[in-house]
Crotonobetainyl-CoA:carnitine CoA-transferase CaiB (Altererythrobacter xiamenensis), 371 residues
Amino acid sequence: MSAKGKLAGIKVVDLTQFLPGPMMTVMMADQGAEVIKVEPPAGDPAREQAPFDTYDGAEHSVWFANLNRGKKSVVCDLKSEAGKERLRALCREADVFVEGFRPGVMKRLGFDYDSVRAIKPDIVYCSISAFGQEGDLAHHPAHDMAVQALAGFLSVNDGADGMPVVPGAASADLAAGLTALSSVLMALVGRERSGEGAYIDCAMFDSLLPWCAHTASSAIAGGESPTSANQRSLGGAAFYLVYETSDGQHVVLGGREMKFARNLLTALGREDLIAIAERPAGEQDELIAFLRGVFAGKTRQEWIDWFADKDVAFSPVLDFREAFAEPHIAERGLLATSEGGGRHIAPAIRFDQSDWHPGRVPQLGESESEE
């Protein structure tokens, strides 16, 4: 990002690793913030996660590169006094401090909110954890799937046999990264008005929970828990479902509005089935069976061609390689290539698209002389 980035002039001290914290801070770096990635002597473990590619003349993990581009890397051994003093020096100049350790770790190290606030009174301090800093679960170890399981989300991430399956997206991690970013930006706006910093306790569990309001309404109201079979958005309705094609591929109908049902069933010459699409989820078995038979009659590509002139919420199920090759990716500039050839997923937040380019991926400790 250029010096004109919306967050230019904001300095972030980032002690996070893996996914939620680095995703949050790379979004800040993409908008011009100066993000100091404070790493232990061994580095962020994501550095070692295969596969690797060449970025800016050096080999890097694709995961690490996409979540840490544009940051500076400083090594601090927080078990040593020298490392702690170095971090204190960084805190004196920081606007934002982000950490993702288990609750209590930063206090033992001497860098909890009160300690950092004593160094920089207006600091915006964000802690990202699985279940928050307080409560019975605060010290319970968990990554994304365990959080999804405890929040109820995994119960409706099930197969046809009702068995919950490993989710394809780390939703709790992603929700926490976005919630942390939003919270920090709100706190920075508030600081501009009041001159006061803030402490943010961002839990993956808390961040994920609000996103079930549309599916878990009955449980929220004290009633029964939803199941996939009785939810329009989870597989209980014919027009929000996955169908197999004759070549063993898959397509989806992804729009619940009745206009899409009318358009498709009319095109198929089965207007008599439109009334079934109006029934509640769980009462559309006849229509689902019909559509399964229809979609099994053509290949995925044949259906793509057939739907081209139809106003129906239809999509083929693509793998990631196919998805990244879609013309839409190029049209929107959603993949960018670094000088060394490695590819970055472009930020979804781009105010001046033509001005954005991937920041350099830092080698471990390469910014030592700058700090």
